[in-house]
């Protein structure tokens, strides 16, 4: 009996929340979702792009090194 | 009556007069409290003790090759083969033999420093230091991995004033920290820090003091996480420094004391230390030739019966 009661109340509350949630996607929720998405993208970009960025900045600094110097060991 | 002084005492009188004049000069030289030197950054408080007592010990073989393409830009290739220790809860140490190759690129400019290292398993270690203005510096440090939730990043904003420094730290996992250090006399500086870790719901406060002269450096640090760290480094001569370190955690009642030496010779640098945990260690860097360094590292932990030996070569 107790379990049935609790299930019922759960159903009611989730139903209630569901209807409210559809109307009121609050700005803080939006902000959190977008900032998480932005952090994830920034992490992937940094992970793949940091070393190429350093190499590009280095190859464009004065005096400009040649491309073969990048690849040969000596 | 001044003319009655015998000649023997006149010579002594002169020497003592010169000595007392020197003392008066030193004491009389007023400390200019408006012109104190800028203190060292808060995180480098124990710098001398760390340099002498905690070099980078390793186990296995290490080979580092740094190739400079121009004054500011260089690439580095590094190979490591040896056992890696896994952190384990039990008293036994678990070691797994690994080998990896690490590629790195460095760009060093007076205003901008970029440092990147990537390993064969995809881990990236990146450091950026940028002088936004003359007094404000941005530093960033990140370790990124392919595994989810295992990456860390930290951003620091440092402001350097005339005789003080402040730092603001932001890290992932809602980590906030701030620190402040101020020169109080030409030799003494005091500092404090506060941090808040959102993910672990921890916050803490800490104080630090550093007293340095030409010959010695003494530092002390207390934190509300229970850590007390004291260190003392004495520069015995140009080539020799001796250091000692004491760490005490008053929450977990853990004590470690260590004593070490640092010999900086013309062709070699030898650092050794012995610990109260029964660990004796030494680290030698020998310059074989211009740009060619040979490294030997040894760490004997008698309490845990863990003996680590490493050798390596650094080129460039």
Automatic annotation (TrEMBL), chain A:
Subcellular location: Mitochondrion outer membrane
Region span, Disordered: 1-27
InterPro entries: Tom7
UniProt keyword terms in alphabetical order: Membrane, Mitochondrion, Mitochondrion outer membrane, Protein transport, Transmembrane, Transmembrane helix, Transport
Membrane topology: Single-pass membrane protein
Coiled-coil regions listed in the entry: none
Domain of life where this protein originates: Eukaryota
KW Magnesium (keyword) present: no
Signal peptide: none
DNA damage recorded as keyword: no
Similarity section: Belongs to the Tom7 family.
Protein name: Mitochondrial import receptor subunit TOM7-1
UniProtKB/TrEMBL annotation, chain B:
Domain of life per record: Eukaryota
Keywords on record: Membrane, Mitochondrion, Mitochondrion outer membrane, Protein transport, Transmembrane, Transmembrane beta strand, Transport
Keyword Protein transport carried by entry: yes
Membrane topology: Multi-pass membrane protein
Subcellular location: Mitochondrion outer membrane
Annotated CDD domains: Porin3_Tom40
InterPro entries, alphabetized: Porin_dom_sf, Porin_Euk/Tom40, Tom40
Primary location: mitochondrion
Family annotation (Pfam families): Porin_3
Keyword Transmembrane among record annotations: yes
Family, as annotated: Belongs to the Tom40 family.
Protein name in the entry: Mitochondrial import receptor subunit TOM40-1-like
Species of provenance: Hevea brasiliensis
